[in-house]
Every structure is written in C-alpha cells, then in structure tokens.
Amino acid sequence: MTNKDITNIEDIKLLVDTFYSNVRKDELIGSIFDEKIGDRWPEHLEKMYRFWQTVLLDEHTYSGSPFPPHKQLPVEKEHFTRWMEIFTNTVDSLFAGPLAEEAKLRGQNMAEMFNHKIEYFRHEAKHPLL
Predict the structure, then answer these.
(1) What residue numbers does the annotated binding site cover?
(2) pTM recorded for the entire structure
(3) Where are its TM segments located (predicted)?
C-alpha cells in the first residue's frame, strides 16, 4: 500500500505525534527534549501542530519565533543530524507526495539554520564585539 500525502490537520497531528514519540525514545536527543519540555508536552505538541499546519498547509494558525526557545539548548551538529534522521524516517513511514517532500526539505532547512544560529550565538558569547 502506498502512503498518501499530507493534506489536512489530522495528517499534521499524526506526523507530529509520531515524530515526537520517536524523539522521546531516542538515546541521543530524547532526554534533551524531555528536560526542556518537562510536563508541558501537550502544549508543545499543540504548538507544533500549528507550526506545521502553517508551513505545509498554508493555514496560518502559528505565530511566533521558533528559534528563541532553542537558543540555549545543549546541542551540537550530531543532535541536529539525529533530529533530521528521525524526522525523515517518520515522514517517509507515514506519507508520500509533494507535501511530504516539502516537510523534509523544510525540516532540513530548519535544522541547518538552528544549528548555525546556535553556533553563532555561542561564539558571540565567547567573543563579544565590545
């Protein structure tokens, strides 16, 4: 059976719930998420539903800046690589089509941008201009 593409909020919820279930079980990044999010998982998942609904379905339900909560996380390139592996595997296991491919592309772009920005802010903290 061929997977269908991402088409509605139920698909987004399935993607997000499955992805974060996989993340929480992961030895490398699971504890980072659990420590940061704590008992606020329902709130985090709701925010992620709105974020991906806005990004993939062009239904503007998310507002805010996704980067600031990640700025101080104790993560390196290997953590973003693992995040992307889990995300790609999750998308591929559930969906196939243009929006599924778009989700993976957006995820990759976000992982790379967050990694670069975190590295930049760490460097700036060690070497301020003034």
Answers:
(1) 44, 116
(2) 0.87
(3) none
